[in-house]
Amino acid sequence: MNQHLYIITGASRGMGLAIAEQLLQPDHTLLCIARATNEALAVQARAAGATLVQWSQDLALGLEASTRLQQWLDQQDGTSFTSATLINNAGVVPRIGPLSDADAADLAHALRVGLEAPMQLTAAFLHATEHWAGARKVLNISSGLGRRAMASQAAYCAAKAGMDHFTRCVALDEALKPHGAAVCSLAPGVIDTDMQVQLRGADATNFPDQHNFANLKANGQLTSPAEAAARVLGYLARANFGANPVGDVRD
């Protein structure tokens, strides 16, 4: 039986949880990394016959998380996996408002979770699996806000723009290798998650686009986490995944 390894951050809720749930298959091993573990997911994994490992890990501590991942991967038998995939899904929206009103610690936390940790985890993953024979992929969950500026969202926009651009660089690195990984930074569309609740619930005086996010919900334009996860996994499964290092699930 072909065995496939998936490493997913932010897998305890929202789209990350939906991605993990849809990957629960007998020939799949999932390593889910989030601030909290999810017992319901563990129950589903046992029922599906999937191998599930869950870490309670603060991704603001990227060095700790990436070192832990490197050590865990070094202990695995790479020959047992037909493929290995890292999905950097976790991200946070710091307090919404102009940068002039931002808290330095809040900014640091958002950039550590949204940009620093994905880079560190990607580096650890690529290094540890460099000589594995199976196909390797890195899927970074980006956002349209990495490609379009928005007032009162400087940290989130910067993290996602950085994610897009470091993915472009990694794609160039991996293209030079005989067995390089396929990498893509993917915008998943607008999804009905806690992040959307945060955006449409923000103070409109500090967030000029608040009404636009409220209208998305009111007009039924948000994709459910399960539907978004299915689209993302469909994109991941494309034969040409990574041909464009920065993509959109609607492409």
Fold topology:
Elements: E1 4-9, H1 14-22, E2 28-34, H2 39-48, E3 51-56, H3 62-74, E4 83-88, H4 104-128, E5 135-141, H5 154-175, E6 182-187, H6 194-200, H7 210-218, H8 225-236, E7 246-248
Parallel strand pairs: 1-2, 1-4, 2-3, 4-5, 5-6, 6-7
Kindly report the spatial arrangement of strands forming the biggest sheet.
3-2-1-4-5-6-7
Beta-strand content bin: 15-25%
* Biggest sheet descriptor: 7 strands, parallel
Silhouette: globular
Number of H- or I-type helical stretches: 8
**Helix percent band:** 40-55%
Write the H/E string, N to C: EHEHEHEHEHEHHHE
Instruction: Give unreliable regions as ranges.
Output: none
How would you classify the helix and strand content by structural class? alpha/beta
Distance between the terminal alpha carbons, to the nearest Å? 33 Å
Name the average pLDDT: 94
Radius of gyration, taken over Cα atoms and rounded to an integer in Å: 18 Å
**Based on DSSP secondary structure assignment, what is the total number of beta strands?**
7
The quaternary organization reads as single chain
Please, could you describe this protein's structure?
The structure is a single chain. The chain is α/β, with parallel strands linked by helices and 251 residues long. It contains eight helices and seven strands, in the order βαβαβαβαβαβαααβ. The protein has helices at residues 14-22, 39-48, 62-74, 104-128, 154-175, 194-200, 210-218, 225-236, and strands at 4-9, 28-34, 51-56, 83-88, 135-141, 182-187, 246-248. A seven-stranded parallel sheet has the order 3-2-1-4-5-6-7, sandwiched between helices. The radius of gyration is 18 Å and the shape is globular.
